[in-house]
# Entry
Amino acid sequence: MADIGDVRSVLTDLGIAAELLRGDARLRADLGLDSVDLSQLQVELAEGHGVRFDPWTGHDPTVREVAALVREATAAREYRRRGWWRAGLLDEAVLDTRAHPGDRAALTGDGRTLCRAELDAAVSGCAARLAEGGVLPGDHVLVLPPNEPRFLVLVLALIRLGARPVLAPPALTARELGPAVAAVGATAVAVAGPGRRSDPLRTAEELRVRHPSLRAVLVPGGDPARGHLDLDACAAARGAAPPGGSRDPSGTALFLLSSGTTGAPRLIPRTHEAFTHLVRVSAEASGLTPDSVYLAVLPVAHSFAFGHPGVLGALAQGGRAVLGPTGDPAAALELVARERVTHCALTPAVARLWLDARAAHRGPDLSSLRVLQVGGARLDEATAARLAEVFGCRVQQVYGMSEGVLNLTRLDDPDEVAFRTQGRPASPGDETRVVDGRGLPVADGETGELLVRGPGVIGAYHGGAEPEAFTSDGFLRTGDLVRRHRSGRFEVVGRVKDVINRGGEKVPAGELEALVAAHPRVGAAAAVAMPHPVLGEAVCLYVTGGAGGAPGLREIRRFLGEAGLAPYKLPERLVELPELPLTGIGKVDKARLRADIRARETTPPY
Ligand code: AMP
# Structure
């Protein structure tokens, strides 16, 4: 048996920094390394841990990476043994036509309904058309989906083909999406045609100019002469899927985008088995059955309406998904009545608009509603109680992250739990820790940051970006401050990440501040949340003036818009100060700024 000194020299040969090993006498035992021979090490990691590890590549692995690989492989074995990860593929689990009859209605939108068999055939036919159009297994395709059936068909078809959709909110600009396109070398981008308020096709064309990897633009009615593929023709095709590359349940099915804290959204890889697990457990916890009708009025580009449990959860349970318009509460209520909707997911901001719309219009018969899910931002108790009363249904709070953290109140929870807490993990495999600023556990009832690890939660971002978002033993740092009740339920009470949660849409403060600082008349800038009666939080920007005094709000909004910031991230209020307050260690004192804006005004000036 080799001793730790030998292992150290082997790992040093592997390019592992010696200082990482210092004092790490447990490493050898942890890794179960009995050999100092590189080939032997490779064999032992493969046979002992199921880890594919190639010491002969140019990549320099670190102890952390090797240990993480071993830990992930061990966890994966356990998740499979417990049945949390199953051998199936995401599209097949969602469209399983053996478990649920093919003639059952599955997807409604654009004035028509597809039954399960038709939807399945459309997904396969679309995959075949995409392949003919040059989309290959392994390709990455950026998809900016509006809530329309053809885009859902496209996403499932890409997955069936073995290509990887990267789901992105259509509101993001080319500047914001560029890093994701570059990180995966996306070969195509799929967008809606120009609309009244936005022009996603322009975003796609801008991306194509900047990123030569983007060979094709998929757009409804696309014109081949402009290098466009017609998405309508793809989604209307029926038939067998092409014999694509082999698909592996442990492989990446799709990517979501994180809402980020510093700037460019990070890519969240979702494997078939992990995402299918989340879809299944959250659909069960939401009471979705073959008789359920799920209405999506939040963007399906976001995990909440897509797969937490969302549209995919409804389909996986044999129910029907209805794709509705975003941002039109009156139309949504009409749709609830017309389609006999049982489930719908809302943010607190949209929930408040639903309450207003209902007060203004008692007409539609909403008696089919069983569950209103509310998440994306903290729901206050009074609004929760009003929702239950006005809509006569269960209110289910959902606290989740696109990274795979997912907690829900349960449908049989008493009202005080459903109204006051954000529930408990959807997955029975989730491990949670609540820690203080030094990473030490706090007692139940105390406030701390929530860390989560489990079968639905990612262990890393694509390309290992932002490794500090994970602990050395693989827990995701949520950046959210919670209190755990003794019952195991969580209450979200704040956050440590520097993000403004504007009605459920996240605005990374750092991104805004960096762009504002480039304005010639701005000295320093800090963005903080200010209270907003509907959105919950809105963006307030504090600035110090450069030469000639600080610009006004209109000028700043124009400047940021031109710099490529999505409209929902623009500040609603601007306050000029002679200087920004600093903390003892010289950082901008955002707590003071938040208190300041609360004191100045509790509603924005419009
Ligand atoms: P996203 O990545 O867009 O899914 O945003 C995830 C973040 O939204 C979480 O880390 C929380 O900060 C916030 N969030 C989501 N759901 C809730 C909720 N029910 N209550 C409070 N905050 C929430």
Remarks:
- DSSP finds 21 helices and 25 strands in the chain.
- The first helix runs from residue 4 to 13.
- Residues 499-599 form a domain with the GMP Synthetase; Chain A, domain 3 fold (CATH 3.30.300.30).
- The mean pLDDT is 90.
